[in-house]
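User: Design a sequence. Structure:
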């Protein structure tokens, strides 16, 4: 689920921690029962997963009662936005493999048939159906397709309860959405695209050159880029007289490309005073000054934003090239975090390894059953 866990060994609990006690954990908690009870009285959060009264009561301010009964489903109204049960519905406690569970019968505010409960005046929640018991010791039951939905919903249930208690979790989902269609990130063919390497501040970053037809144009490295630890380049273009055209350009020589290879170009940019003027980027063959892929254009906004382009090289050149970004409009342009990474063709995505929280199976294919 992405939560960072530590084993409770009796150390004093802090208000920003959440104590999770699973079935069988009551014995380990018993020697510290009085400390845990005082922590709960002071506002501490405890999530009990399939605990019966015998295991739970020694550590609770108020005793509860449980009874082992078969659980299949329960119906209950949604909790309010400030509740520790907010965001949870009957579908999350539906059990497609009915079995006996320690349902709460007294000592707490019962939800449904006691598959969920919350102690009055305490941040203690009882969740009597846990993902671990659905998936089995080695996840064997998860491979039974009729139980897979149950495992997903109980996983959501436990995650939502912990989040309501203030526990933070990390997920790979967003990073997978951000991953290019070429799969795992590859090395950028642009060198020093993050502008971190410089001979001596405030000089130009290594591997990059700046040129300008406009008089008094300037390029300077700034420590404060789109992120606290990410530098940026500020390119200033002065006022251009009506009859005198001018431009500014940032470039890097000898960027290698292969014919037919697709590349994902990404950069961050912002601007001031450029209006709706376009900024252009290209990779030029310095022997004949033909572009090695179609010209790409973007319009930077006044706030940092990312611009992404998918291009295909039309020739193979290990050197003798010039990657360049330029414009000819008065104003200021900031650039940062520039990458040009080889990737798979956009028509050959690797969606099963990058856009899902888990690995899709044949069972998930709706066409197989419903002819969608």
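Assistant: Done.
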């Amino acid at each position: 689920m992405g939560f960072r866990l530590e084993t409770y060994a009796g150390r004093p609990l802090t208000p920003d921690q959440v104590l999770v006690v699973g079935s069988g954990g009551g014995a380990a908690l018993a020697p510290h029962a009085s400390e845990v009870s005082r922590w709960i009285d002071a506002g501490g959060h405890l999530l009990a997963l399939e605990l019966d009264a015998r295991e739970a009561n020694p550590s609770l301010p108020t005793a509860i009662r449980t009874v082992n009964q078969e659980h299949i489903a329960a119906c209950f109204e949604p909790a309010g936005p400030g509740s520790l049960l907010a965001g949870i519905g009957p579908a999350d406690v539906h059990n497609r493999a009915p079995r006996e569970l320690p349902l709460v019968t007294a000592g707490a505010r019962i939800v449904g048939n006691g598959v969920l409960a919350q102690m009055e005046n305490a941040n203690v929640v009882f969740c009597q159906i846990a993902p671990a018991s659905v998936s089995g010791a080695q996840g064997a039951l998860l491979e039974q397709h009729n139980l897979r939905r149950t495992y997903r919903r109980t996983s959501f249930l436990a995650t939502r309860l912990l989040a309501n208690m203030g526990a933070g979790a990390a997920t790979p989902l967003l990073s997978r959405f951000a991953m290019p269609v070429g799969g795992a990130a590859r090395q950028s063919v642009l060198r020093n695209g993050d502008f971190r390497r410089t001979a001596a501040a405030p000089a130009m970053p290594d591997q990059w050159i700046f040129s300008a037809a406009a008089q008094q144009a300037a390029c300077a490295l700034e420590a404060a880029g789109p992120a606290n630890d990410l530098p940026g380049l500020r390119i200033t273009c002065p006022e251009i007289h009506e009859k005198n055209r001018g431009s500014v350009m940032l470039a890097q020589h000898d960027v290698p490309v292969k014919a037919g290879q697709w590349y994902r170009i990404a950069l961050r940019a912002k601007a001031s005073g450029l209006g709706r003027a376009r900024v252009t980027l290209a990779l030029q063959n310095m022997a004949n000054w033909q572009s090695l892929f179609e010209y790409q254009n973007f319009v930077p906004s006044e706030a940092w934003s990312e611009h992404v382009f998918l291009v295909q090289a039309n020739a193979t050149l290990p050197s003798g090239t010039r990657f360049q970004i330029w414009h000819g409009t008065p104003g200021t342009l900031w650039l940062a975090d520039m990458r040009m990474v080889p990737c798979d063709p956009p028509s050959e995505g690797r969606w099963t390894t990058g856009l899902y929280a888990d690995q899709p199976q044949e069972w998930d294919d709706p066409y197989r059953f419903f002819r969608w």
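The CA atoms of residues 13 and 39 lie 7 Å apart. The chain has two domains: 18-164, 209-348.
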